[in-house]
Design brief:
Belongs to the MurB family. By secondary structure, the protein is α+β, with helices and mostly antiparallel strands. It contains 8 helices and 19 strands.
Length: about 300
């Protein structure tokens, strides 16, 4: 079991990056869309690819648990928090365009990347205009919406492997499928993505994005903290419809609630704990399974430790 050696680990992390980029005992609810989660022993925000590599090597050589945290949009962190090093790549957020190729660093928001493409009249990322995740997170789960997905436009990715090596991989080597990739299994950390887009007409691209934004804002409970769409679409069904037909809209456990606006969303309605939020997810899964015989698979990722007094 990892035992925190705060002073030595903190010193090593600040030597790699700087004191401004390393926080101890950081509350993670401030870094997730659900506003849930305990504390991280060390929360580090590197500013260069080399720093990412060195931090990975530090965790490997010193046997320190390591967790990569995106912008927390499709994630639930348990109330007990996360031991060891939590790395966030939000300071690696540059976006550049050359011709029809767009290169975006991992920490850039995919929404902002889609807007950058629009500014150059480039088509292909319209579907991403309402996805709240980072570029790294979008690749991690092959994010998609409204008939489009990352694998449609991804050319290649620059990653760091579990030993700290820098690799450039073509998209086909990431095994991008519906809401999945081999990135978690391989232990890759995405540093940047290269997208190949198409020249288009600015007004036409903007009209599509405006329409998708209206659909999202009118149908999704964006006024409350949530992890977004909780479940993957089961073959032949729609998760939200199954939940709605199970009379679960408005169902609450503690401060967590199945949204009245969109049944596929669970919101932090009133100061929920992560345990309450997770228990409501399980209740929805059990109820839909019992009523319709359909197993809802989570799209959202759950990480971290339970509190000692949690069941």
């Amino acid at each position: 079991m990892f035992v925190v050696s705060s002073f030595s680990t903190y010193e090593k992390l600040t030597a790699i990056t700087s004191a401004d980029n390393v926080l101890s005992d950081e509350c993670l609810e401030d870094h997730t869309y659900t506003r849930l989660g305990g504390k991280a022993d060390f929360y580090v925000t590197p500013e260069t690819y080399e720093q990412v590599q060195e931090i990975v090597r530090l965790s490997l050589n010193d046997n320190i648990p390591f967790t990569l945290l995106g912008n927390g949009s499709n994630l639930i962190i348990r109330d007990g928090g996360i031991r060891g090093i939590v790395m966030n790549l939000g300071k690696l957020a540059a976006v550049s365009i050359k011709g029809t190729q767009l290169v975006a660093q991992s920490g850039a928001r995919i929404i902002d990347v889609s807007q950058k493409a629009l500014s150059r009249s480039l088509s292909g990322l319209e579907f991403a205009c309402g996805i709240p995740g980072s570029v790294g997170g979008a690749l991690f789960m092959n994010a998609g919406a409204y008939g489009g997905e990352i694998k449609d436009v991804l050319e290649s990715a620059k990653v760091v492997d579990s030993e700290g090596n820098l690799l450039t991989l073509p998209a086909e080597e990431l095994d991008l499928e519906y809401r999945s990739s081999n990135i978690p299994d391989k232990g890759y950390i995405v540093l940047e993505a290269t997208f190949t887009l198409k020249e288009g007409v600015y007004e036409d691209i903007k009209a599509i994005m405006d329409d998708l934004t209206f659909k999202r804002e009118s149908k999704q409970p964006l006024e409350y903290p949530s992890c977004g769409s909780v479940f993957k679409r089961p073959p032949g069904y729609f998760a939200g419809k199954l939940i709605q037909d199970s009379d679960l809209q408005g169902k609450q456990i503690g401060g967590a609630q199945v949204s009245l606006k969109h049944a596929g969303f669970i919101i932090n309605f009133n100061g929920a704990s992560a345990t309450e939020y997770i228990n409501l997810i399980r209740y929805v899964q059990d109820t839909v399974k019992e009523k319709f015989g359909v197993a809802l698979e989570r799209e959202v990722k759950i990480i971290g430790e339970k509190q000692q007094d949690s069941q």
